[in-house]
Design goal:
The protein is built from 4 helices and 6 strands. It is α+β, with helices and mostly antiparallel strands. It has a single domain, classed as Outer Surface Protein A, domain 3. Strands 5-1-6 form a 3-stranded antiparallel beta sheet. Strands 2-3-4 form a 3-stranded antiparallel beta sheet, covered by helices on one side. A hairpin with a 2-residue loop joins strand 2 and strand 3. The longest helix is centred in the last third of the chain and has 17 residues. It starts with 5 loop residues before the first helix and ends with a strand.
């Protein structure tokens, strides 16, 4: 796994306009109306998605999730970084 990107982790993120979400059995389905694309998130990515309200940085989110789930901080940071990078590259989130 690549080293976490500090620029991603230092920013606050929110869901991009035009992305609708519905959660079923702990997994989200996202629909990007401008592009007509669907994204199906696993449980972990759904948890990250639901926390993106524009008020918490990627690093703060990593810390909170690591503590909540008793996971090593470095491991959680790498995972959150990967999810945020994917969300950003797909146009699902925007920096605030």
């Amino acid at each position: 796994m690549a080293d976490p990107d500090p620029s991603v982790l230092e920013r606050c993120w929110s869901r991009a306009p035009g992305v609708d979400a519905v959660t079923l059995d702990g997994e989200a389905v996202l629909y990007q109306s401008p592009h007509g694309r669907l994204h199906v998130l696993n449980t972990s990515a759904t948890l990250v998605w639901e926390c993106l309200d524009g008020t918490v940085t990627g690093a703060e989110l990593s810390d909170e999730l690591a503590q909540a789930f008793g996971v090593d901080r470095d491991t959680m940071t790498a995972q959150v970084d990967s999810v945020l990078e994917t969300f950003y590259s797909e146009g699902l989130i925007v920096p605030t």
